[in-house]
Amino acid sequence: MAQRIEYKTREQMRVMARAGVIVERALAAGRAAAVAGATTADIDAATSSVISDAGATSNFKGYHGFPATACVSVNEEIVHGIPGERVLVEGDVVSIDCGAIVDGWHGDSAVTFIIGEPQSARDVELVEQTRRSLWAGIAALATATRLDEVGAAIEDVADAAGLHPLVGYVGHGIGTEMHQPPDVLNYRTRGRHPRVKPGMCLAIEPMLVLGTEDSRVLDDDWTIVSADGSRGAHWEHSIAVHDDGIWVLTASDGGAQGLAPFGVTPAPL
Fold this sequence. Notes:
single chain; 15 strands; globular
């Protein structure tokens, strides 16, 4: 039996946009704290300060027992890394994923970047093409009839770059909970997919790797690493679909800059 999708009003989407902009600021603070010699715990502290100072609540901390405000994943750690005493060095590929709740409504977003000088041109391509696949997926959502068009757009970018979507990890609906139906896949699949309708709010989050698409979970029961130790990247935005178009809830410009190369203009809430 299909799970029920939660459809939002424009006013509810506006509250989610407030949460989303706080997440955007938290990620910027985390990125600023991510320098060679800093720890992943330093990144977490920076994101936590922004969220609490804004009067919002972290939706990660305590989620199924997760102990931190942000997931911080380094190199072969693709997603769900627990911040701690790991010291960052030049060339590390770092992903930060965090979220916030405002008046019961959630925001969720992630970025990936390289500390200092990259180790290789391939690392730079990994980060940039994963980011591009995110915006390709968001652009596809603007005109999509069904959600599988988002995954197809993401996979097209990944294939062209020789990258592989991590199997088994997907985007999701978002609203009064951080994770809701429907799943938003990062690759093509057969079958009937949900129709794209006004009122949907979705977190699109491609996770691409340089090597194998397979992964494993570390002993902490959270951190997902590539099975072959190759590096990965993770980008995410939360997006609202409304009667006039789409609006990226976790970008203060609604996604205008990221969507411009795809010829899509976001429609204000």
